Task: structure prediction
Amino acid sequence: MKIKYELIKNYKKARLGKLKTNYGTFDTPMFMPVGTLANVKTLTPEELYDMNSAVILSNTYHLWLRPGEDIVDKAGGLHKFMNYNGPILTDSGGFQVFSLAKKKDISEEGVIFKSHIDGKKLFLTPELSIQIQNKLDSDIAMSFDECIPYPASYEYAKASTERTIRWAKRGKEVHNNPNQSLFGIVQGGEYQDLREYSAKETVKLDFDGYSIGGTSVGEDKVTMYNMIDYAIKYLPTDKPRYLMGVGEPIDLLEGVERGIDMFDCVLPTRLARHGNAFTRNGRINLKNLKYKEDFTPIEDNCDCYTCKNYTKAYIRHLITCDEMLGGRLLSIHNIRFLIKEMEEIRESIKNDTFDEYKEEFIKQYKNSD
Amino acid sequence: MKIKYELIKNYKKARLGKLKTNYGTFDTPMFMPVGTLANVKTLTPEELYDMNSAVILSNTYHLWLRPGEDIVDKAGGLHKFMNYNGPILTDSGGFQVFSLAKKKDISEEGVIFKSHIDGKKLFLTPELSIQIQNKLDSDIAMSFDECIPYPASYEYAKASTERTIRWAKRGKEVHNNPNQSLFGIVQGGEYQDLREYSAKETVKLDFDGYSIGGTSVGEDKVTMYNMIDYAIKYLPTDKPRYLMGVGEPIDLLEGVERGIDMFDCVLPTRLARHGNAFTRNGRINLKNLKYKEDFTPIEDNCDCYTCKNYTKAYIRHLITCDEMLGGRLLSIHNIRFLIKEMEEIRESIKNDTFDEYKEEFIKQYKNSD
Result:
C-alpha cells in the first residue's frame, strides 16, 4: 500500500494531519530522526518507539556503499535488516553526492563522483537511485535531485532545476515497488520563479508527496524560509510536504507555520555526540565546567529516559571521558526534545494557539546561555 | 551493612553460595561486568539488570582522575551517580597503576607514577586508595596491592608480597564506611610458598572477602591456575573468594572448579568493541566476510536481546561502518553469554553434574572456527 495523507485541520497555513503507512498511522507535522547507516546512531528501535518516533530516515547513498542494497534485499528489506517496525523514508542519495564528494561530473545521464570511503569511481543516475530504494524497500522513496550550490547563477540554477524535473520523471518511470511511495523534490535554488516552476512541473508528475529540497551548502535562514514560501503554495493540499534536512527547534516552528508536515535532520544525534543538548532555554554544552557538580537533569520537566535517570554532572563525566553512553543518553534527550516539540505544535494547531506557542517558544529559547 | 556470604553447597572444591548485599542477594559463583568509568561501556543499568547481572566492578584509579571521588561523593555515591541499583565493587587502583603507568617509583609509603591522561605526577598510597573508595561508597572495596611483574625474581616477589600485606593492614586501619565491605588480596607472584604465606597473613587481618590477585602482565594459564591452587586452601570457607581480571569462558570453569566465587573482566565488552562474539563453539569475529549474508543470530538459542532481534549480517554491517550500536549489541551478547554460563555452572553444582558440564563445554568451545 502507498502512504495516505489526511489533512485534519488548518491553522492559517499550518497543517494538522495524519499519515497512514504500512507500519501504522502517525500524526503530522512530525520530526523524523536520521538513521544514516540503517541505525539511528547508538540507539535501538525500542528506544525510538519509547520516544514516540514515527518515520525514520535512512540514506540510500550510504546503504548503497555499505552493506549494499542486495544484502538489505536478501535480509528481507530495510525493516527486517535493522529491525525497525515503523515507517522508513530513504533519501535519494542526491544530497550526499553533492555534499560528500569533492569532485563530481554532472551530465544529463547522472553524476560521476568518487566514493567518500575509498575514492572508487561511482555513477549514480535517477534510475539507479530509485532501483536501489526499491530494493531497500523503504516506505517512502525520494526522487534523485541536484542540490544546487549556494549561491548559484540564475543560468546554472535554471538548467539544473529543469534537469532535476527530467530526472524526477525518469525515476518515476522505473519505480517498481507497490508498497513504496515516491516523493518528488522541488528545487530551484534561491530563485522565486524557479521554485514556482519546479513546484508546478513536479506536481504535474503526480507524486505521493512533495519535498522542498535545499542547496548543497546550507543557505541562510531567510533564504530557506523564502524557498518554502515560494514553492509551497503550488503543492496540492492532499499530499504531505517534507522539508529536507531541517531540525533546529525554531526552524521546525517556521516550517510548520509555512505548511510543512515532515522534517528530518542529523542535528539531534550529531549534537549529542559532541556533548550538546537542546533545552527550552537554548542549546547547552555539557562539556562546560559549570555542569561538573550539577546534579540536576538536563531539563527538570523532560519526560525522556535520560532526564528521568541521569544528572548533567554524570553525562558531563561520560562525555569528558569519551564514553559512548554519554552520546547515547544525549541522543535520547535531543530526539525526544524535537519529537515532544512536534507533539506540542500539533496540540497548538488543534487548539488554535500555534502563534502563541511559537512566540513563547522562541522567547524562551533565545534566553540561551 | 557489610556483605554476607553463605555457602550453600560444595561439589568437590566448587562452591554454590549466596552473597547478601545492601542491594539484594545474589547467587555465586558469579561473573561481574566491568564499568571502568562509572558505566559498563555503551550500556545502561536496565540493560545489565535484563542480563541478570549482579555485582558490577568500577575502577578507583579511573574515577579518582575523572570525575574525582569528591564529585561522586557529592552526587550521593557511585550508585546514585551512575544510577545502578545493584551492588558495586571497586578495585584498589593497584592494577591500573602497575599496568597503565610506564614509569613508577614504588616505596614503602606507596607508588609515585604519572597519570595516563596528562602525565601529571600522582602518588597513590594504601590509605588514599581506601579513602577514595570510602567516598565512592561502593559495596565492596579492595585493598591496595602491588601486581608483581611476571616473571619476577623470588627476592623481588617476596619483598613485594610482604609489603602488600603491610599495605593491606594500613588500608584496613583507615577504612571507614560501615556500608562498605573490604577485601584483602592474596599476592605472591608465581611462587607457591609466597602464595601460601600471603594467604595466611592476609586472612589473619580478617577481611570480609579475599581476592587472588594476578600479576601486572598476564601470566600463562597454567601459572594462573597454580596461583589459585596455591592460595585457596588457606582461605576461610565462610568468606567469598574473588579471582581478579579473569573472564575467558574456560577460565571461569577452571576457577569455579578450584573454589572461586567471583570473577570480573573487561573481555566481553572489549571484544565486543572489536567485533568479536562469544559462542558455545568458540569466539567468532563478525568482521569476517563469511557473515556478510548470514541472516541468523549470533547464537540460535541465546536469550539475549541481541540474538532475539538481530542477525550476524546486520551486526557485521554496523561494526564494519564503526557504528556504536554494533559494539553495544555485541556487549549485550557477550556479557549475557558469561552470565548465562555462570547460571548453568551454578545449576550443575546444584545437580552434581559440574564435571560433565565442564567437559562438554570445553569440548564444544574448542570446536571454534
